[in-house]
Design brief:
Blueprint lengths: L1 H19 L11 E4 L4 E4 L21 H10 L3 H5 L6 H33 L12 H42 L6 E11 L8 E11 L1
Antiparallel strand pairs: 1-2, 3-4
Helix pairs in contact: 1-5, 2-5, 4-5
């Protein structure tokens, strides 16, 4: 349960960083630099005011982080819609569907084993498959009771996580300028294993952060 929450939080964070740092495509012409004794010539040559300029993302002072977090607290996903990050909605609702299913399974089994334990405690008759399993019945009852409670806690925590995500995304849009001086790129690569691990290569991911 806790591992699932941590993975969902990491997924939100990575997705937010990748989306914020996405660079616009530009068509640049190849240049050749010819260096002499005292001068540098760029070919083809263009005046400085005609050189292609990087797109700059200006903050939106009218975008309210307060509205984003309130909307997400009232109903999950509304903050992401307010931030125009519709691609996050499957993550939000998928997380709640998974938690809802986990609660249903835990609650159903808890009620079943609780009923059997109550009947056995007064000497009543139960299904023959449960005969002689008094201790096991109590273990399963406590197990599903604990899972049900953890699912409720996880649902509340995930509700808060998606609200925090909406606030952070809105804060970036409201207060910060994201331009091409900061680049974040994830690409697949092959990693070489050390010699004591029999050598060879394994697939992996390479993270490149560019600062200028």
């Amino acid at each position: 349960m806790y591992k699932s929450l941590i993975l969902l939080l990491l997924l939100f964070f990575c997705a937010e960083v990748l989306h914020a740092q996405k660079k616009p495509r530009k068509n640049r012409r190849d240049t050749v630099s010819v260096t002499g004794d005292t001068t540098t010539v760029l070919s083809p040559f263009k005046p400085k005011n005609e050189q292609p300029k990087d797109k700059v993302y200006h903050p939106d002072s009218t975008h309210s982080p307060h509205k984003a977090v309130i909307k997400s607290l009232v109903f999950p996903g509304l903050g992401q819609i307010y931030n125009h990050q519709y691609w996050k909605l499957p993550i939000v609702y998928g997380g709640f569907v998974g938690l809802g299913y986990s609660y249903y399974v835990a609650q159903t089994n808890y009620k079943k084993y609780l009923k059997v334990a109550q009947i056995q405690s007064v000497g009543g008759k139960v299904d023959p498959i449960y005969n002689g399993q008094n201790a096991t019945i109590l273990v399963f009852k406590d197990f599903y009771h604990r899972n049900r409670d953890l699912t409720i806690i996880g649902t509340v925590a995930f509700w808060g996580i998606q609200a925090i995500d909406a606030y952070i995304a809105a804060k970036f849009q409201h207060s910060y300028t994201m331009d091409n001086n900061l680049g974040f790129k994830v690409t697949p690569t092959m990693l070489s294993l050390p010699a004591f691990a029999y050598g060879g290569f394994v697939p992996g991911l390479k993270v490149t952060v560019k600062l200028r």
